[in-house]
Amino acid sequence: MCLIVFAWQVVPGMPLLAAGNRDEFYERPAAPAGWWSDHPHVYAGRDLQGGGTWMGVTRNGRFAAITNVRAPDEKRSDAPTRGRLVADYLSGDASPEQYIEQVAELAHRYNGFNLLVGHAEKMIWFSNAGKEDPRNGKPLGPGIYGLSNGLLDSPWPKVVRTKAQFGSLLCQGAPEDAYFEMLADTARAPDCRLPRTGVSLEWERVLSAVCIDSPEYGTRVSTVVRLNADNTAILREQPIR
């Protein structure tokens, strides 16, 4: 994923409501969300090139998602695929704390990432680029959070805008389709508000949209996830391209 906004322990009876967009090159093959044949309890899309996934749930209410940290000058071509970090949590049985301890030991091998892992009672954010953040690797408190290709709640225009819209929809008790409409926003941020992440100004403009549309790269799929207090999970996906 390249944008995730989520409410954690805000809605009674629904510990997690998350909405996100996966941005990727169009030529990279992927399978739509479904039950995995090799791990039948996992429901997620699948990256057919790297074998991992970007967001998923399990029959017993486990949840995981990932975004890449944009740092082009630090990117390594020999790094393992980050989507395996999501797949391995969903297919395993380690607690969120145990899993993050395992990931932390190997995090230096990967290009920059933000990882969310949890279930109905606990949610942890971990980033190999955010070692100084006091929240990193610890259970999150109740609230509305946003992740793009910076650290948790970095005030990038699309994070700020989407968190505000997400909170408003939540207060209204809006239907699920309203969250997909929010994720379809193609408006770009003005130049004066663009972050500086090491890519060209034109790419900063393209990537500033909630829903990215360019000839070779863009938003491939939108996803809404609900975790319920009874440890059930619902993942709904809408393809964009």
Number of domains: 1
- CATH-defined architecture: 4-Layer Sandwich
CATH class: Alpha Beta
The major pleated sheet works out as:
6 strands, antiparallel
* Percent helix range: 10-25%
Protein name: Signal peptide protein
InterPro entries: TANGO2 (IPR008551)
Organism: Noviherbaspirillum autotrophicum
Account of the 3D structure:
43% of the residues are buried. The protein is built from 5 helices and 11 strands. A hairpin with a 6-residue loop joins strand 3 (30-35) and strand 4. The model has no long low-confidence stretch (mean pLDDT 97). The chain is globular and about 45 Å long. With 241 residues, it is of the alpha+beta class. It is 21% helix and 33% strand. It starts with a strand and ends with a strand. It has a 6-stranded antiparallel β-sheet, with helices on one face. A 5-stranded antiparallel β-sheet has the order 9-1-2-10-11, with helices on one face. The protein has one domain (3-155, 218-236): Penicillin V Acylase, Chain A, CATH 3.60.60.10.
Provide the fold topology.
Layout: E1 3-11, E2 14-25, E3 30-35, E4 42-47, E5 55-58, E6 63-68, H1 83-91, H2 96-106, E7 113-119, E8 122-127, E9 143-147, H3 157-172, H4 176-183, H5 201-207, E10 217-227, E11 233-239
Antiparallel strand pairs: 1-2, 1-9, 2-10, 3-4, 4-5, 5-6, 6-7, 7-8, 10-11
Helix pairs in contact: 3-4
Give me a quick take on this structure.
With 241 residues, the protein is an alpha+beta fold. Strands 3-4-5-6-7-8 form a 6-stranded antiparallel β-sheet, with helices on one face.
Question: Could you list some keywords that capture this structure?
Answer:
TANGO2, 6-stranded antiparallel beta sheet, single chain, 5-stranded antiparallel beta sheet, 241 residues, Signal peptide protein, alpha+beta, Penicillin V Acylase, Chain A
